[in-house]
Task: inverse folding
């Protein structure tokens, strides 16, 4: 019976010693906290980058509308230069997922429907197709320069949460500043 009591006494002493031992507590806490801190850190970095890209997407759409609206007429060369200038805004982010289009719209005075007069870009709109515009811009008999930009942002680290990326879109409207409408390749102002 004495060997069992001795064994039991030693086991109790070892359990008490294990409970009282504090040498591995910091390592254990570190092992629990580090993954959470890394997720929080990289999540904040990716979220900040996503916000920066969203802001740059908005700047691109406004830039395209502003550049086109400052002209009396535009050519394909000028429009290509506008697209190139707007792509520079996206620096230092990858510019390959950018899709951008510039269109001119005519607001019909009877129906207040906006119809495409011309459209150039990654996904040009069909001439004569209707585009919904905000009610504040539905002034009959006027023209609008309409730019659309989309960008698929794929997080570098957050590919687990968004493996295909997040599609960021923005549009901008501007009225022609130098004339009633902006001519494209010297064609006249139409009212399709």
Result:
């Amino acid at each position: 019976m004495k060997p069992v009591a001795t064994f039991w006494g030693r086991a109790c002493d070892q359990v008490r010693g294990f409970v009282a031992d504090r040498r591995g507590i910091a390592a254990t806490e570190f092992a629990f906290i580090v993954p959470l801190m890394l997720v929080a850190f990289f999540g904040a970095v990716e979220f900040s980058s996503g916000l920066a890209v969203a802001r740059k997407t908005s700047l691109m759409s406004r830039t395209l509308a502003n550049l086109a609206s400052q002209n009396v007429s535009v050519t394909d060369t000028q429009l290509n230069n506008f697209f190139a200038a707007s792509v520079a805004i996206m620096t230092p982010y990858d510019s390959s997922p950018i899709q951008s289009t510039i269109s001119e719209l005519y607001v019909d005075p009877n129906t207040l429907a906006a119809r495409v007069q011309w459209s150039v870009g990654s996904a040009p709109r069909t001439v004569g197709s209707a585009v919904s515009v905000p009610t504040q811009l539905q002034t009959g008999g006027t023209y609008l320069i309409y730019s659309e930009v989309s960008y698929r942002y794929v997080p570098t680290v957050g590919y687990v949460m968004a493996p295909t990326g997040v599609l960021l879109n923005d549009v901008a409207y501007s009225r022609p500043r130098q004339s009633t409408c902006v001519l494209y390749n010297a064609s006249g102002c139409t009212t399709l």
Observations:
- The two ends are 106 Å apart (CA to CA).
- The beta strands are 73-74, 98-107, 114-121, 130-131, 143-153, 166-174, 183-184.
- The chain has one domain: 21-184.
